[in-house]
Design a protein that fits this description.
By secondary structure, the chain is of the alpha/beta class. It has seven helices and ten strands. The chain has a ten-stranded mixed beta sheet with strand order 1-8-2-3-7-4-6-5-9-10, with helices on both faces.
Amino acid sequence: MSEVGAITDKIVARIRAGAVVVYPTDTVYGIGCVLDDDAVERVYEAKGREEGKPMSIAVHRVEDIARYAMLVNVDTLEGLLPGAVTVVLPRTDIVPDRVTAGGTTIAVRVPDHPLALELVRRAGPLVATSANKSGMSAATTCEEARRQLGSAVDIYIDGGPCGENLPSTVVDLVNGTILREGAAASEVREWMKRHWKGTSGPE
């Protein structure tokens, strides 16, 4: 287990080889790995996460989402991402079943945080879920994450306290529903009123 304040070539190589990493985001600290079944299994184990519960992924740019998900019911994600929002969209075949728990959708983030963006640019895309034991509070500092997850994580990237005490808002763009209210929830509602084009109407 190591703790770093910068993303080096060695750190990137370890993550690409399957290391589990805790990293700062614009909401709370995240725990992640590359989209590899064995690495994803280690994240499940580290969190004590319930089997069958899917995970989200983080990508570097909004344009990268098209590789992993299909845009439906909206013409653009401008004004929604990057930011403290996770969007749920139909997945593409490139996404491993282990990430989505066999489901047909994928949750995707573009975090608005320089260290997180550099990490996913160089090593990603990465699984993106909150860095805490399931059922416990999300960590807003690296130290909080380490107290909960300990040696189950290979690398801790300390970017100082996160800007929010809430996880991202999760919005399902297939059905037009907000699945989890978190940071930026009111902004998401306003964005949905302007941009969502589905039939059942956004919540």
